[in-house]
Amino acid sequence: MSSKPVVHLDFETRSQVPFGSSAGAKSVNAVQYAKHPTTEVLLARYAFGDGPVLAWDAWRGEPLPDDLQQAVIDGHVIAAHNAGFEQAIWEHILEPQYLAPPLRMEQMDCTAARAAVCALPRALGDVAIALGLAQQKDAEGQRLMLKMSKPRRPRKTEDPTRVYWHEDEKDFIRLGEYCDDDVLTERAVDNVLPPMTEYQRQQWLRVHRANERGVETDLLFVNNAIAVMDVVADRYRQRFHELTGGLASSATDLNGMRKWLETQGIRVASLDKASIVHLLDEHSDKPHVVELLKLRQEAGKSSVAKLNRFDTLTESDSRMRDNFLFHAANTGRLGGRGAQLQNLPSRGGVEWRSAEECIDMIANTDNPEATLDLIELIHGSLPSVLSSCLRGVIRASEGKQLFVADFSNIEGRVAAWLGGEKWKLDAFRAYDAGTGPDLYTVTAGQILGKRPEDVNKVERNAVGKVSELALGFGGGVGAFVSMANIYHVDMADHWEVIQRSIPGEFIDTARWAWGKFGEKQALQMEMSREAWLASETVKNAWRDRHPGIVRVWSECEKASINALKRPGKWFPIADGKCAIGCTKIAGKPFLVYRLPSGRRLYRADASLKGIEKFGRQTQEIRFMGVNSVTRKWQRQSTYGGDTFQSFVQAIAYDLMDHGWKNVEDAGFEVILSVHDEVGAEGPIHRELSEFEALMNATPEWAAGCPVSSAGYVGQRYRKD
Predict the structure, then answer these.
(1) Strand ranges in 34-122 using DSSP code E only, listed in sequence order
(2) d(Cα 440, Cα 452) in Å, to the nearest integer?
(3) Which of 257, 326, 376, 520 has CA atoms 20 to 30 A from the CA of 39?
(4) pLDDT band with cut points at 50, 70 and 90 for residue 719
């Protein structure tokens, strides 16, 4: 980063195209917004270091300031909150219209990204509040900005075909004052937040490059699929009308459906996904009710909304950009933007070969109704089929192919590496070499006291798979049963086998726990005694077979407590691979998790509170964070297993990012990253084995951690 004064920059703009979180499903991304011919800069405010805020009022016809242009030429860092927006405006408006010098993201700094790294809210106003800064965002001015950024409605005496704006001079002046405050608030945030490490900055830039490249989408298929879904919607409307005698007109007419269900003796408070599943089970003997509910299920699939987002967000070069959000989770993992590629359906529907056949049929149709009938004859309900086709909307550019690799059980491998579970690490290596069984079988054998070859499929899933996915982060019966439900496993069915196979000491401990707290817990969870005992027994046996992981849970909790009591000192965990400390940001204590890569995770405004837990007094680790469900900034708590999970997921991301860097350095162009998967475009002559080897190469800091990925090469994105 440059030693010259940082330039803090903020633009205010307006456009006829919708943009931002309040703009709804038709909103465009920052690059589309900046490229749109109706988008214009109204004004900008900027400041050199701690100097005064300077003004550029483009609305008055002022030229772009020379000092701002020279700052870019001279290599000053240009800082902004959500820097991708300012960079897009500069590149697509200031460069062509004002002949401004090039400004690339490598020259920029982003206080929103730095706030996210510190586990703070991304929005400028919210992060200023969270940090308790004296300088706060101008809420009243923000309302004015939202009003002035889009067209107003024509008045009665005005031509309704023309575009009108809020253009009162007093409003422009007030907007400038609002922008002044934004620069001051951004600078205040910048002054207290730690800079990104070079490692984190390179991760941020990699995500930006992937967002700039975008993914190519098959718009012919998208538009034809929307046309076919219009036929489906017409049929659904007709059938809803027939079934309900006109009480319900469509799948979105919830009041009409409720009224009709009442005529069938069924009162419902909700018709969401979970409620429909329950109602289908409860009223399976009523054919018309079942048909109506299934139609509602099918019509409610997200495929149509996704198709519309693909259509809106794809540019004239057939690429959809700005798809990923840097550091969306506190572990550093990416989030989705726009069409939300992180949330594409992965289960159900048809397998990928059939999905690609359907994509070709729809893309080449000149008769949507006939194509609909043929697909439903062969594959079933079209909304379900389209859900399976959504990944295939993304395809390789002409002359290239898609290389996609997904890490295998990366969290399980990292957890075993942190815990020093040698038997498990050896089992992973044997499986990767093709000389040993999969880890679910090995784990089931460890718990049941059997050789892996003697573990049957039922035992593998019920004891091995469910326990591996549920118990690695300190979870108990609740976590175990939640995971079992996902895989349709009822532990009560396995109680007899567990009693015969698992050593009696674990069963005795489970029976003792039943008398202490299990009966009450089972009642709350609506579980049978057998299901609870089976789950508790497997939990006890799993923990006994993973003493290293259990030890690191405890180390995480003790290190967090000690760090809060002794700020400035690092407390190592996992044989020194990681450490936990405490530092102050804006006068507030932040827990800091140091990863093997050197990257840091943060927990804001952390503290300790004395509580009673499991009948004894202990200290609860508390912090402020954005609730993943409510999206509100609120007090939360953590414990050893949860902290361990944060380390595991963050290290898994760093390993994936290392693979991402490797393939990019080798000439592949990364265009997407979904969970533990990286996708890139590459020349047709490159081999999948090369791509996988680059992804699997571990950095020095992860020595001894077995990493393996499997992937495919193809013309379309898919889920194998």
Answers:
(1) 40-48, 54-56, 78-80, 108-110
(2) 9
(3) 326
(4) confident
Is the four-CA dihedral 663, 665, 667, 672 of positive or negative sign? positive
**Residues 385, 362: contact at Cβ < 8 Å?**
no
Question: What DSSP string describes 114-172?
Answer: HHHHTT--SSHHHHHHHHT-SS---HHHHHHHHHHTSPBPPPTTS-TTS-B----HHHH
Confidence band (pLDDT; 50, 70, 90) for 324?
A: very high
Mark out the alpha helices in 214-351 (DSSP H runs). Answer: 219-244, 254-263, 273-282, 287-299, 303-313
**pLDDT tens string 221-260:** 999 999 999 998 898 889 888 889 999 888 888 899 999 9
Cβ-contact 371, 226 below 8 angstroms: no
Eight-class DSSP state of 635: E
CA distances from 517 to 50, 165, 213, 473, 535 (A): 59, 65, 55, 21, 14
Tally of residues, the chain: 720
Q: Which two tokens stand for residue 348?
A: 């159900």
Angle at 266 between CA 262 and CA 269, to 5 degrees: 90
- Given this model, what pLDDT does residue 631 score? 81
Largest CA distance in the chain: 87
Q: What pLDDT digit, counting tens, does each position of 393-417 carry?
A: 999 999 999 999 999 999 999 999 9
CA 546 to CA 544: how far, in whole Å? Answer: 6
Q: Are strands 7-14 and 78-80 parallel, antiparallel or unpaired?
A: parallel
Phi, psi of 19 (to 5 degrees): -150, 145
* Out of 112-121, 219-228, 517-526, 567-576, least confident range: 517-526
Average pLDDT, the chain: 92
Among residues 36, 46, 289, the alpha carbon closest in space to that of 151 is found at: 36
Rounded average pLDDT over 341-363: 89
Amino acid at 347: R
Three-state secondary-structure class, residue 595: coil
- The token duo for 525 is 């969870």
Residue from 114, 307, 305 nearest 197 by CA:
114
* pLDDT tens digits for range 209-220: 999 999 999 999
Closest alpha carbon to 699 in 199, 156, 45, 345:
199
Q: Is the pLDDT of residue 2 over 70?
A: no
